[in-house]
Design goal:
By secondary structure, the chain is an alpha+beta fold. It is built from five helices and nine strands, in the order αβααββββββαβαβ. Helix content is about 30%, strand content about 25%. The protein has a seven-stranded antiparallel sheet, sandwiched between helices. It has a two-stranded antiparallel ribbon with strand order 2-3. The model is unreliable at about 1-20 (pLDDT under 50).
Length: about 220
């Protein structure tokens, strides 16, 4: 009897633990797909910002910017807001927030928690990345292109991943211009330190990072 009660206790404790882990994921509100500034005005106001306040972004703003960058705009076809060479859709968008690191699941409109550590400071070499509210880290999952863990990855094989990341980053720039936010795309990323902190595999390659926040006036 005692063994049975103990087994049940362990079982329910295990289930409770799993539920707690899952509860750390963030369900985003539906993105607002109307409104904002006209395209030509957003293009005219698009600019790079390197000075941010410490104000957090709302979940609505995070949902909108992620959808604008790499969201799903034709669900029936599983197509996205940015083009992808041969439709591999190999770019993963990781979101570094003060409360942890998340992976954007565009099809579920959810942030899947990787861990609860603040690694924003590791996503770049400039001082402002440590205090900015959002750092996006663009990762090419070359497993979707047939690369296995341990395979050699040549620079030439990343050509389209850089191009695809550029499309996403420009969408984010235009969203920020439309929403009165600031952002900057960054190539100075300490990839050798950041990749282990993100738990990346050898066939997952950090391409670029992008900082988003409320611009200092």
């Amino acid at each position: 009897m005692k063994k049975t009660l103990y087994s049940l206790f362990v079982f329910f404790f295990f289930i409770a633990g799993l539920t707690n882990v899952r509860s750390q994921d963030i369900s985003l509100p539906a993105p607002e797909k109307t409104g904002g500034k006209p395209l030509m005005q957003a293009l005219n106001e698009r600019q790079t910002t390197r000075s941010f306040t410490k104000d957090d972004l709302t979940l609505q703003q995070i949902s909108d910017l992620l959808w604008a960058g790499w969201g799903v705009n034709r669900p029936d076809l599983k197509k996205r807001t940015a083009p992808s060479a041969r439709d591999f859709q190999e770019i993963s968008v990781y979101v570094a927030l003060p409360g942890g690191l998340y992976l954007y699941d565009a099809f579920a409109n959810t942030l899947k928690q990787i861990h609860n550590r603040n690694i924003g400071a590791l996503s770049g070499t400039q001082a402002f990345v440590a205090t900015a509210p959002v750092n996006l880290i663009y990762v090419a999952d070359l497993g979707k292109l047939g690369k296995k863990e341990g395979d050699e990855i040549k620079d030439a094989e990343l050509f389209w991943s850089y191009a695809n990341t550029g499309f996403i980053a420009q969408n984010v720039y235009l969203y920020c211009a439309s929403a009165n936010l600031g952002c900057v795309i960054r190539g100075l990323v300490p990839k050798d330190k950041l990749a282990p902190e993100m738990g990346l595999k050898s066939n997952q390659v950090i391409i670029l990072s992008q900082t988003i926040g409320v611009p200092q006036k």
